[in-house]
Amino acid sequence: MRILFLGDVVGKPGYTAVLQNAEPLRKELRLDALVVNAENAADGSGLTSRQYRRLVDAGVDAMTLGDHIFREKEIAKTLATSKRIVKPANFPPEAPGKCWTTVKTSGGGSLAIVSLLGRVFMRPVDCPFIAIDRVLEEIGDKTKQILVDVHAEATSDKQTIGRYLDGRVTAVLGTHTHVPTADACIFPGGTAFQCDVGMCGPYASIIGRDIKRVTQTTRTFEPCHFHVATDDVRLCGAIVQSDVDGRATSIERFERRIDK
Ligand SMILES: [Fe+2]
Ligand SMILES: [Fe+2]
């Protein structure tokens, strides 16, 4: 199975780039599945139900989110009722949304998608290790192809979760910091890993936001709205190939500059 996972879609530049390129990329890269972290699609924070529907229509198989999940509150009903989107599995059970989902892939297979939030330098959430153990038990033998988005601030947090899942899932791919890391690899047990796959959005920025505004507030402590930046838009992610047993056979970084 060939899967492209794209990192945090940031604001209009990232969202538009994914909408326009999802279907062409599926063909060009001969993808079986396209999964996207969409937590920053709505003007840099959150995802709207309309955006969810348009991304599905454009060729995105499934979406993960992150700590900004409820910035657009109306996404709650989509989370509760839609099949192609998951909440972090270590969110409270009372929160709307599924802890995992499966999608049929182009090649006729089935791919499970799970999202986990880290706990270092992040708001408190339930234990990701207990959550993923529970989810993997629920998935059971429904599919061996399992993609885990680990949405966390600290590389050590992501590595620990990645190593914990080595040999139990197809890929553990990091999001949230919006900067691609150069550590894509396959662990000894056959799990593909990358600390952060990078964002889909403007790279002439501070993690997607206007450089001047972020710098001003950082220097003066005077709050202001951080507009989404506009320049050097790129789609970033990772392409993972796996065998029939769900073991990763390759991982490569994906990066595509989008012309204005
Ligand atoms: Fe993000
Ligand atoms: Fe995040």
TrEMBL record:
Keywords: Metal-binding
GO molecular function, one term: metal ion binding
Residues forming the catalytic site: H68 (proton donor)
Record's keyword annotation contains Metal-binding: yes
Keyword hit for Metal-binding: yes
UniProt: Fe cation 2 binding residues: E39, D67, H151, H176
InterPro entries cross-referenced by the UniProt entry: Metallo-depent_PP-like (IPR029052), YmdB-like (IPR005235)
Species assigned in the record: Rhodopirellula maiorica SM1
Residues holding Fe cation 1: D8, E39, N40, H178
Superkingdom field: Bacteria
Full protein name: Metallophosphoesterase
